Amino acid sequence: MKLVDNSIIFNYNFISMNTTKTILLVVVVALVVSFIGAKIFSGVSGPTGNNLLDTVLGKGEIRAGYVVYPPSLIKDPNTGQLSGIFYDGLEEMGKNLGLKINWVEEVGWGTMIEGLKAGRYDIIVTGLWPNSARAKNVDFTGPLYYSAIGVYVRAAENRFADLDRINAQNVTIATIDGEMSSFIAQSTFPNAKTLSLPQDTQVAQLLLNITTRKADVTFVEPAIAEEFLSNNPGSIKNIAKDRPVRYFGNTMAVPKNQDGFKAMINTAIDELFYAGKVDELIKKYEKYPGSFYPVAQPYTLP
């Protein structure tokens, strides 16, 4: 019996030791996998790292990608000098924040979001109009002002008293790839044909395609149309002056899920509003009064 008892004790101890080793091995493997996973997936919430705000504050600069779209963002063709409502506005915000604005890249409507997601810049600067398609990939700041989008046709065009008549196969809409005209055409007038221009095309080219009869209709804001009319009097008209096809806030885009960075930018925007700087910028660059709609004050005086 003693031998049997010792064998039982030996087998029990042997099993216990192997079980303990197995448990320890499993724990070690789990820790290693967790550590590797943390290394691999650190920073996946944004192209510039987990916390864009920390990165920006650490470097002391905001890297801006920009779309040339006067008067929100203007580029002198001879000198390359930038100006405009959003350019001046972000520069003023940078001064208030103690951060340098580094204008790193001019981008197009169709590639601006991919560049932001890839981390080539921290913010897209222009008068950017939010929509659902864009919101899947970026977040938007508060607007500096609003725009109403008109429906422009040739001056002698009388077919579209009812805008629904635009939604027909014998109608051609002038659009720019990735620009809001293309989204409006796709969502509101899907049966119409489109004459699509490359994303780096100046928006005024849409109106030129109307006057040259390459297209029948396009969608732009009054500031663009009024500038075109100053050079081409009586050539086009807005058939939706009293009922714009869209209203949009003019915003900037930032990477998804970077709430701290977005909150900092929005606070800087609010500071411009309360100091009267946004009104000054609109007055400075709004060539045709009434082109833009100001953001409503968050209070009313008694």
If you had to describe this structure to a student in words, what would you say it looks like?
The protein contains ten helices and 13 strands. The radius of gyration is 29 Å and the shape is globular. Helix 6 links the parallel strand 8 (172-176) and strand 9 (193-197). Strands 1, 4, 5, 6, 7, 10, 11, 12 and 13 form a nine-stranded mixed sheet that branches. A two-stranded antiparallel ribbon has the order 2-3. With 302 residues, the protein is α+β, with helices and mostly antiparallel strands. The chain has two domains: 52-142 and 252-294, Periplasmic binding protein-like II (D-Maltodextrin-Binding Protein, domain 2, 3-Layer(aba) Sandwich), CATH 3.40.190.10; 147-246, 3-Layer(aba) Sandwich (D-Maltodextrin-Binding Protein, domain 2). The longest helix is centred in the N-terminal third of the chain and has 40 residues, at 2-41. Mean pLDDT is 87; it is low at 31-49.
Please name the defining characteristics of this protein.
2 domains; 41% helix; D-Maltodextrin-Binding Protein, domain 2; two-stranded antiparallel sheet; nine-stranded mixed β-sheet
Blueprint of the fold:
Blueprint (H helix, E strand, L loop, with lengths): L1 H40 L10 H8 L1 E6 L7 E2 L6 E2 L1 H13 L2 E7 L5 H6 L5 E6 L3 H4 L2 E3 L4 E10 L17 E5 L3 H9 L4 E5 L6 H8 L6 E3 L1 H10 L4 E3 L7 E10 L3 H16 L2 H9 L7 E2 L8
Parallel strand pairs: 1-4, 1-5, 8-9
Antiparallel strand pairs: 2-3, 5-12, 6-12, 7-10, 7-11, 7-12, 7-13
